[in-house]
Amino acid sequence: MKKTIYSIALLLVSTGVFAQQQDSLLRRQMELQREFNPTLQDANKINSLPAVPQPAIKKANTGYSSWAGRTTPPLEIAVPNPADIMTAIPYNTKRGYVSLGAGNYANIDGVLGYRLVENEKNSLTVNFLHSSTGGDISYVQESEPADNKAFFMENAGQLRYGHLLSTFKLDLKAAYSHTAFNYYGNTFGNDRHYDNENQTLGVFNLGLGMESDRSDRVNYSGSFDYRNFATGYGLTPTSDGLKGNYIDLGIGIDKPYQEGDTRVGVDGKFLGVFYSGEFDNLSILSANPFVAFSGLSWKARLGADLQFQMSGGTKFRVAPNVELDLKVADHSSLYANIKGGIDDNSFLDVMSEVRYVTPMTQVRSSFSIVDLEAGARIGEVSGFRFDLFGGFRKTDDDHLWIMDGWIYNGAADMPVLFRESLKPLYTNLAHTHVGGMIRSNIWSPLDLSVRVKKSIYTVEETGITDAKAYGKPGFEAGIQATYAVMSNLELLLNYYFAGDRWSYFNDDNVKMDNINDLNLGAHYNINESFSIQLKANNLLLQKYDIWYGYPAQGFNVMGGFTFKF
């Protein structure tokens, strides 16, 4: 039994994340972040291929963000994918799975995974993914034409090998993904600059990771990640695209003291991004010395990030890296995380944030002076869990996304061009937020959670009078419910609201429509090997933009099956 469970765990690490990168393109491209509490729903926040273990140099952006992949808010309906299904049972002897779903707007999702080798010391898995859409979408604004076809397709494959040695574990991977999409944004009656020509992005990835078994002597970890990428075209569909290479090296070492209650160590990282053409290369060298303590009811990690940035001149930055957690009762605790540091904003990072950025746009790196997140988790009330949280982040050279719009080409006898893509607007941004979540399962068949978040932004040095935090909602709320009708049938409901959203267009602030998104889903296990699922999105028939001029899909339905073999 232990061996079988261990095999399933390895499969989930290598394939579960891979299966979650599906992209509804327009139905979901915004994410409401929260502190990480491991649940099945959190798998839907992942938007990358499985990564080898790497030292954590800085905290991820915990603010609201817009995404390019088929990512979903944590409050999204999570119609179980194969990885979810496998975690819902004590063990599974199946080696592979295939899942396929289709719906209107030509939405198609497919994933295939198989464990070629699985024993106590070796694991070899292969995975394939397809995700695509190609339906006409109506613009929110009055314009001619009133709609356009939004096309997206991603195909990806990965081969991953894990080997367990006597003192450490080794992880190897090789992957390739190919993405194609069009700039379907509103031109407001102007000629299309990209004329719906499909932009492409191909990424080849090799990775190596190793991590020692935990001991009371010296613990170490290391990683190497190489990526080569190329895009289809540049500023025009007839110009050459961007190419480049990434080298990401990580190392970590720590020494336990006092029977493991105290650890002293350092994490290090080197990131090198080397572009073709006129892009500036980027290099960042980081070191994170730390000391970690723990007691019966508390734990703390005290450290700092020392970062050297070698692009556009050498810069040296120091940022705190502190984590505190205090247990006040059996199921309640207080926590605080104080982070900061450089965000490199490299090309592939930007493409994972918003794929519709104007080609050949290099986004500046930003620096968070402080990134504070604190809160309380309260679980002492039977059947309820309360999460109260708040935070503050101050970032220099942060960026907001707005429509690129009209471009003067410098020639008096030539017309002004209009680009239906997005460009960054730089700002020094301060973000304060407070919020809370209540989760209840007092009636066992029903799992219900409600979450709200209020954000306050201070936008400086944009060159725009009365500038707003464009693209970032001021208020968010969501409801998620899962009802187990019977042991093999689940119904799911999700509602997501985002308000106080702004953009900037034609030299003016534009109030964007609120998001009122209601979704329903159902999942039915016919037997141990076969299940079917159905989900309906945007049941309120709402029209709203993800970014200004880039609307979301209307009402859509997707049904499919999962087969384990």
From TrEMBL:
Keywords: Cell outer membrane, Membrane, Signal. Transmembrane segments: none annotated. Residues 1-19 form the signal peptide. It is found in: Cell outer membrane. This is TonB-dependent receptor. The lineage of its organism: Bacteria, Pseudomonadati, Bacteroidota, Bacteroidia, Bacteroidales. GO terms for cellular component: cell outer membrane. Its main location: membrane.
